[in-house]
Amino acid sequence: MRAKKRAVRLVNDYADLILRLSYAYLGSKADAEDVCQEVLLRLLGRAEAFEGPEHERAWVVRVTANRCKDLLRRRASRPTVALDEVAEPAAPETVDARALPALVFRAVMRLPLEYRETIFLRYYENYSVRDIARVCGCSEDAAAARLSRGRAKLKVLLKEVGYDEEDL
Amino acid sequence: MKKTFDAYREGLDALSFSPVEKSVLVKGLVAAASSRRRPWAARAAAAAGIVLVLGAGAVTAYATGALGAAAEFLQDVFGMGEEQVEDVSRMAGVAGASATDGGVTVCVSAVIGDDTFYAVVYTLDPNDPALFDDVERFEDGKVGLALGPEGSFFPLVSGSDSGGMSSYFYDADPEDPALQLVQLCWAQTEGGLAGQTAHVTLHDLYGWGDEGRSAEPIAAGTWELDVPLEYEDTSVELASGLETTYNGCDVTIERLTLSAIGVHVEYTLSGEPLETSRQGWELSIPVVVTLEDGPSIDATWSGGAGETLEAGGTARMSKGMGFDRIIDVEDVASVRVGDLWIEPGA
Asked: Are residues A157 and A96 in the same domain?
């Protein structure tokens, strides 16, 4: 009974986060779901207590990121991101605001892994550069550079599909 | 780009599990967590007298999934998460050695270690399923059993000249009548432990509670087992020849090894110490293993062996500690020895 209660809490708190972060790395919902199950199982079985909710969440992010990187390393070659749910639309002349979230999401998924990783951690998880560096295993300078280059590259990709934030 | 990233977050939020999918996730997690504790079905032949069976291929008390079963016992002992199970299954040995006497069969369920430290989990399976019913269960998961004082139950490793052990009993599966004995041991031999054999002699099983050992044994018997220390030694040598200081002395690290189960350092002291009032100060050089996510394992006061530093001379020392958890060596951020922080892989 206790295990079920804990499992419910963990799924409610983290399943979507792990899914989204894993998708950012792997580009496949099926693979992301597998990672989600693995990480949640590991979290459920963890004997050591966390210092608090923030510590627990940081652990989840770090373990998810590491697991995804393990999977990517084990693959024969890094695949191009397979956006397996939605087909790429033709570039519209103007961007419908309702379509903007999916548009930006797809554009981020077209970025190289190290850029979309830092963009997820910064703009979805609100991580500082320092925390990004810790998760990514790089220096703070490198993390800042990846963020900056990621934003620049994202702007280019969005312009290609007709979206320029300055136009809004 | 605020609007852009607002849209990004909104796009990500659309990627989520449905309530039904979350319910399936919960069921899967609960099922996976409860399958850790499967009833122990195998029993060795209930022969009278002492049966000494060599492991490593002679007897396997388990069929398929043997290494998975061993890892489950090690999960109980070291509290590791599910992700480590596969790695530990690869590292652990399933010796299979068993002995039967006094109505109890003792068999080795799992062994894991490195070249200095090792842990053995035994299962004590009674012919009478009610034999251990009155044994006290403690809040920390341990159970009130003790071995008899006669004879040695300290594992003797062939060729070792020193060693030590701590042990306790616990119940891996309250739904079956068996109990488990854990021995956390260390021994030093030329060339290390992996591949050696530990000879274990256990005498009589007593109850244990607030008033100590019970007056009469619960099971009177002698169980002798040869435990092949056949496991994957995950030790990595981190440093050799590095120098640091301690208590005003020069320290040369002759050898520093780290494994999933312990840390061990051999070092040489020389020079004039600042303070010598504390007996055995030569052994108290700080040794701390720090993991990447913050926790540290302090082996400073773990004890060891060595020489007394005489004026103008040198002293060779050896100390180390077996961990109470299985770690991933790749998760270690640093190992401190004296005033030196050593990063694995650096």
From this structure: yes
- Whether residue B112 is predicted with pLDDT greater than 60 in this model: the reply is yes
Cβ atoms A143, A127 nearer than 8 A = no
Domain that holds residue A159: 88-163
Is position B44 within any domain?
no
Angle between helices A129-136 and A140-160 (to 10 degrees): 100
Between B95 and B169, where is the model more confident?
Answer: B169
- The verdict on residue A92 lying in a domain is yes
Among A31, A36, A105, A151, most B C-beta atoms within 10 A, so best to mutate, is A105
Question: Virtual CA dihedral for B125, B128, B134, B135, nearest 10 degrees?
Answer: -20
B40, B126 in Cβ contact below 8 A? no
Q: SS3 of A12, please? A: helix
What is the per-residue pLDDT for B78? 64
**Alpha carbon distance B188, B193 (integer Å):** 7
Regarding whether A72 and A23 lie in a shared domain, the answer is yes
- Give how far B297 is from chain A: nearest CA, Å: 13
Q: How many domains does chain A have?
A: 2
Is A168 within the bounds of a domain?
A: no
Q: What is the pLDDT of residues B44-65, one digit of tens each?
A: 211 111 122 222 222 222 222 3
Position A79 scores a pLDDT of 45
Identity at A94, one-letter amino acid code: T
User: How much of chain B exceeds pLDDT 90, in percent?
Assistant: 15
Q: Is the ipTM of this structure higher than 0.90?
A: no
Question: CATH number for the domain including B241?
Answer: 2.60.40
Residue A109 contacts residue A116 (beta carbons within 8 Å): yes
Nearest CA in chain A to B293: A59
B250 and B335 assigned to the same domain = yes
